[in-house]
Amino acid sequence: MDAEPPLEPDAVPERRPLPERRYTGRVVVVLADRVPLDDTGDLVEHGERNGDLLGPLVGYLRANGVRTHRLVTGVALADLLRAEEEARDSPFPPLQSLARYWVVEAEGSGKGPQEVARELQGLEEGREPASRGVAQAYAETVVGDPRTAAVAPLTASTGQGWLAPRPRGVDAFHAWEQPGGRGEGVRVVDVEQGWELAHPDIDGMVGPPLVGVNRFTLDPAEGSHGTSVLGLVAGRVNGRGGSGLAGALAEVAVCSHFDGQTDGDVVNAVLVAREHLSPGDVLLLEVDRPGDGYLCVETDDAVYAAVRLASAKGIVVVEAAGNGAEDLSAWTGPTGRRLSRDDRDLDSGAILVGAAHGEVVTDPAGPVEGHRWNAGALSNYGVRVDCYCWGGSVVAPLAVGYGAFGGTSAAAAIVAGVAAVVQGMQRAAGGPPLGPLDVRALLAHPGGTPQVPVASSFRIGRMPDLALIAGMLPVLSS
């Protein structure tokens, strides 16, 4: 198990050296609300139809010879607009239509994406506010799996403690004794970029990606992360390795944010998953932003909008908080957006998951047992993080065999399984599918296993307790 000494409440971990900001080569251009929408797929053509607002933009695009296309390509424009219209009466109405998001490929201009973004944004300087057609332009940063360094070798018996009753684990054993306690009737989609779908723990369980390319088919090194995630969520019990939490799901599917050229296609992966899922199903985001300090993926405005659309449909989105040892409460985006549950415009509806150590410790300030924030995994933290689970001492299937898995990747996978089990028990008890806010409240319930020390500055919430939650079901209105 974990052998690190107890972490003092305000001890600052040694963070991994942050890389220079890395970009996909794409610039995202967001058109102002005053620009009429149409169905064209080319930004120059669209701009020519609205020359009074987009004339400078058209001139720039022509002069620099860059290619453009809509950001959303995974679903039809009509389907996107219909989804946004349906979301208007939900707790998560769209703040800006994703139909206004375009991609400018910086390649071909002879300039870097940062320079192109600055120049595009600068086109509006000096223009009257009512004449400005470009609301925002930003260089898209690289995304990836929320990876952490491997830990000491584990066995199935030592790496499955997260299944145990509290305070050690989420108490899967209690849930498995309840009707629906293995996720019966619930569907889960995992968004990342690579899986070994022929692994014995998941073989025959998952089909090819609903969208994007399985990166494992191009590079075997890209398969372990996704395989581990699926194993924790729903891996079969076969006597070879660990046990998945929700082993009786109606369906497990995957969406890749790698389109064969760029790994930044998260928005389309989320939207395709949203189309595939129904209210009460679970969407797992196993993505963070290594190109931007390892922040959670919804710090990108377009991804945030897509996640809100999924939440508006009633889908439970579980999102890795990321492995940058950053305070998500302190983050502010270029437009001033923050991450907060207290303001509905700043809340995606997702369940953000932090990582803790597997070892149970006692708070030196009082007789409280729980888990320490995982400094070794560099889990992001802050009041926006809803709950935590093990981010170390976890065994999971790899592309070949089994091994250690950790960080917010492992924690989010376990919590996605918890969410599916909660929905399964709710269904079996005769209740309606629980909405995202209901599930988030149950998983973050103050009766769950606390973080220790309770006074820690690195707040990651509480670990869900399935025995506690089972006693609260069914919730009769959602």
TrEMBL record:
Keyword Protease among UniProt keywords: yes
Keywords, ordered alphabetically: Hydrolase, Protease, Serine protease
Domain Peptidase S8/S53: 222-445
GO MF annotation list: serine-type endopeptidase activity
Gene3D superfamilies, A to Z: Peptidase S8/S53 domain
One Pfam family matching this protein: Peptidase_S8
GO biological process: proteolysis
Similarity section: Belongs to the peptidase S8 family.
Name of the protein in its database record: S8 family serine peptidase
Source species: Pseudonocardia broussonetiae
